[in-house]
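Quick one: sequence plus triphosphate SMILES, need structure tokens.
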Amino acid sequence: MGIEIERKFLVNKTKWQQVEKPAGEFYRQGYLLTDPNKTIRVRQTSDKGFLTIKGISVGATRAEYEYEVPVGEAKELLDQFCVAELSKIRFKISVGQHVWEVDEFLGNNTGLLVAEIELTSEDEIFTLPDWIDSEVTGDEKYYNSNLVTHPYKDWKS
Ligand SMILES: O=P(O)(O)OP(=O)(O)OP(=O)(O)O
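Reply:
Sure thing.
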């Protein structure tokens, strides 16, 4: 069974701006369903397409099945079938043995900066970079599938 174990954190904007990082990659992604128990995500990157099915999270773990699809078909699926979509720039940064994925959201989610780290077990030890703020693993507000319908710009602080 496909499993994703991932922890999610907010990023300190000021410190992040000072980090030396490789160029980010533009991601466009949308969802074929609005169902809290499962998501079917279509993602288009600069040169690749993906179809990803995810289950509900238990702790930092959820079922995940991902398939690469032709990028042109990912675009067609997004254009024709997705209920809602978002875009972001994803940065990948190696820290110790792990790769952090930092998303700078665009459009209605501009201002939101979220970092994720994929692990091989829930209790795996990893290094927290100094640009990490609080942990938001499991907070549904930050699920990308939620951000398409409840974007950051509409949140009340
Ligand atoms: O890139 P992923 O698989 O971590 O997924 P995402 O679409 O960026 O976000 P979420 O963890 O909210 O599904």
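The two ends are 39 Å apart (CA to CA). DSSP finds three helices and nine strands in the chain.
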